[in-house]
Amino acid sequence: MLGGSSSCATSTVNCELSHFVSSFANMAASWLLKRWCSTAAIETTKGTRWQRLINSRAGVWCRSLLSDYKEACRETVLGARERPLKASVYLGLLGGMYACYYTNPDDDSFETSLLETSNHLALLSPWIRSGTSDGHVQTLVKLRNEGRLRYASLGIASLTYYTDYDPESSLYEARCSAISVPWSELPKRMLDVGFVGRWWVLDHKMKDFDINEEEFKHLPPALVATVPLSPQITERNEKLHQESWKAVVMEDESSELDAIQKDMDTPVKEIESDALYKAQAS
């Protein structure tokens, strides 16, 4: 009985020990599996974050936008190959618009041009200045000093116009938007147009700024109706003017006396020849 009981106890211990070892091995294997799965999950999560961003609404919209631009560029290149003349016209228009935008004058250039023209007129006497140029420039200078000049850029062109009040004025008429001047009156208030680096109205007003037209109104009718000289007469006058600047060449007295004696002998010889001819005829 004792031998049988001891063998049963030994087998029970062995079974429990093997069960413990197997349980420990299973726990270690499950721990390693969980650790590997968690690492793989982290790597999978890191790898799918970009995929989730691409598959999101913003990613789909960006991809479709890039695809549309790619297709538009491809069609543009193919269309340019098929119709080179049309493509050249469009390219010229785009280049012209960019050139106009690049050379579009700003408000500083207008003030610079205004000051330069004002200085040009200040160098002339009031009796010589053109009334049109002087009046236009004086009006612009007055509006500038009063702070009533405004500038508006249209991208490829610019406009300069005037307002009734200075923007820093505290008057009720200047601050109230209900009684402000509507935009429909802008054509009436426009002063100049800037295009391709020039202010065209100011340049037109400054044409012949050193000629006063009022002076010619008091001339006699004969001078007012004077016809300009022909090109031949003008050329002859220029030659005479050039010759007047040349040095005077003095001839010898002997040559002058010979020329005078020759001039005096010519009539005497003519008289003698006439008398001889009459004598022979008689």
UniProtKB/TrEMBL annotation:
It holds the Pfam family Tim29. This is Mitochondrial import inner membrane translocase subunit Tim29. Signal peptide: none annotated. It comes from the Eukaryota. The lineage of its organism: Eukaryota, Metazoa, Chordata, Craniata, Vertebrata. GO terms for biological process: protein insertion into mitochondrial inner membrane. PANTHER family: MITOCHONDRIAL IMPORT INNER MEMBRANE TRANSLOCASE SUBUNIT TIM29. One of its GO terms (cellular component) is TIM22 mitochondrial import inner membrane insertion complex. InterPro entries: TIMM29.
